[in-house]
Amino acid sequence: MKIQRNHLVWILIAIGPILLFGPMLVRGEVLYWGTPMLQFVPWHQFAIEVLKSGHLPLWNPLLGMGAPLLANYQSALLYPPNLTLFIFGPAYGHGVLVTLHLIWAGIGMALLVRRLGLGSLSQLIAGLSYSLSGYLVARTWFISINHAAAWLPWIIFATDRLVESVPRKNLRQFYSSVFLLAVTFSFQWLAGHAQMAWYSLCLSAAWLIWRAISLDTWRDRLRTASAYLLAGVLGFVLTAAQLLPTLEYLLNTARATTVDPELAMTYSFWPWRALGLLLPDLFGNPSMGNYWGYANFWEDAIYIGIITLIFAILGIVSSLRGKGSRPTLGRFLTFLSVMTVILALGVNTPVFPFLFDHVPTFDLFHAPARWNLLLVFSLALLAAIGADQWRTPSGRALYWIRLGTAGAAVVGLAGYFGARWLGDVEPTFVRALAIAGVGLAIAGALTLFVDKSRTRLPMLLVGGFLLIDLLIAGSGLNPSISQEVYDGEAATVAAFGRTHRLYMTADLEYALKFSQTHRFDTFDPGIDWRVVRDIGLPNTTMLDSVPSANNFDPFVPERYTTWMDVLDTLPSADRQRLFQLMDVAWLASEVSGDLQAVRYEPIEGSSRVRLIPNAVSVSSAEDALELVINPSFNLDDQVVLETRSASLPQGERGGSYDILEVQDPNRIEIEVTTSGGSWLVLSDVMVPGWRVRVDGADAELFQADYLFRGVWVPQGTHTVDFSYQPSSFWLGAAVSLPAWILALFLFIRWRDE
């Protein structure tokens, strides 16, 4: 059976991720390093358990004294491919999903290149170099980045198709193009990484403007812009069930206004790592335990393959010299590459700091190095342009390529022997130069000796070389482990139970992560990874349903952030009374260099529910916080309520309560008995969406003690029912559900026509 050329391209693209992650999946192993264990597996395991119990995972009661879960954008609970996790389970399923998304990214690039009129070799080069680039592979364990970045080629494909459909006056093609772009937008927006989505939208808008300029009339340009806006609106409608709760939550986080400038600039692209385009491991590699460069390895990873870089340079040179639509595309991509590098450099140039201070949206994200997503994308397309012009050299070009190939071979050999004989040179330099030399020599040999008149042979040889090159570079960047690391119960369950909260100071958490468990220089610090759960490193406690006052999450309520910052500045005695208020019964103690030595000290008197006889009102959050942290203020006698009401009921001491067991994480039901009325204070974080009913009747819910919830309970025995019912989710669901039904209907109809 003869395989069609495009199918061969797709097969070769699919082979890469399968070879990279297939052995892990066959062995039944799972991703664990970084965010899989600390965020994504706990979130998704909890969400699946909640869904199986017949409830919606809107609220997370186990972390940060309670926090929204579905509204937490990176949890991506409404992302359709995550349904796969129901089949395979979160731990194993994430390995399946990252493999499929890398394949999806590569096929999307190949289809985009085909749409641009380039041949099969160009499609293969672009597909492999993007999907197996250092940017995507080194960040694979950051699940939401992996998923969102996979949709970038599809968004640009749909954007280009939309522009082309406008002047054709074919309504069916026009509306299907709008629909396709809306769906690609929606899938990326549901994938859970706002930074990748925003960069993709910026590129999509720039692509639209560049393509629209070539249209003949202003009417067509305006129609194109209108159609693009319509696609954006439809994309928002399709994702409203996610975006509306997220926007509501965002307004209650510190990131609603800006990211701290120092934090935002932390991962600026280190200029020396630009050499990573040719020498990816010049400064070592954490998979080999020898990374010694600035910050971490993965944020600056941009390797796309040696032959891809050569083709990209060829594409740039030919585009700067040529005329016509393809050179225009090349110049656009070259300009985009230059601008992206400038932005990625962050604090290393005055450009990004200026934009951060004066231009909206630049202050919303940290890690400017992530702008390199657009660099990798642009270079992959430039390489596709260069590969389409690949010819056997002649004349002076033949002389220089022969000389360069011989020189590269010498560098490769010198690097090999240098690693043996030179003791004073950094070993990572020698190894990186040796590999680059061999790679350049092979690329030169392919240029000199491969018959360009044939079609399949160059694809197999060049594609095979690029595939091997990228697999070697990406090998080990996503370590796997037995699924047993997620099974069973951690030691925290037997030691502390599931009634009260644990707490680990920010300094201790930082020290444990970056000095012992998640060091930047190596993925293998020589530990038993099971101990990461046993010491309760946030957010692993969620795997065992052990409540924690910690929350390792980029989105946390602003008041929670302020509370924790203030907590760390207080003297030990003052912190003790706040720990009691927070229901923290176990405090992790300081250790030095030994995970096994992490100990938890008990804190007496902690309680999630308190019955307080008296209340004092304040008019602002600042006044409430100042009063609560005042050592002379008796938290057992008075509760601080933020209200303009001048008259608040006052009760009597005494009473009892019983927290009733309910399966729904969005509800807390408490039976309360008081002799003269009392204020019930629940030490769970207060955010919009929470309601309270006393004996089935709506009651007023107060912001209590700055961070928590309070309600007045009259004399006698009553049932108090707190429920999380965010109207933003239900409104979004009412909008999105019919839109997805319509989208499915149109897909079936247009497919059959």
Keywords:
753 residues, alpha+beta, five-stranded antiparallel beta sheet, four-stranded antiparallel beta sheet
What does this structure look like?
It is a single chain. With 753 residues, this protein is of the alpha+beta class. Among the domains are: 99 residues, no CATH class; 48 residues; 115 residues, no CATH class; 118 residues, Sandwich (Immunoglobulin-like). The chain contains 27 helices and 18 strands. A hairpin with a 6-residue loop joins strand 11 and strand 12. Helix 4 runs parallel beside helix 7 and helix 15 runs antiparallel to helix 17. The longest helix has 27 residues. The model has no long low-confidence stretch (mean pLDDT 91).
Uncertain segments: none
Termini separation: 29 Å
Q: Enter the CATH topology name of the domain at 609-726.
A: Immunoglobulin-like
Quickly give the structural class: alpha+beta
Structure, briefly:
This protein is α+β, with helices and mostly antiparallel strands and 753 residues long. 52% of the residues lie in helices and 10% in strands. Strands 11-12-18-14-15 form a five-stranded antiparallel β-sheet, with no helix packed on it. A four-stranded antiparallel β-sheet has the order 8-13-17-16, with no helix packed on it.
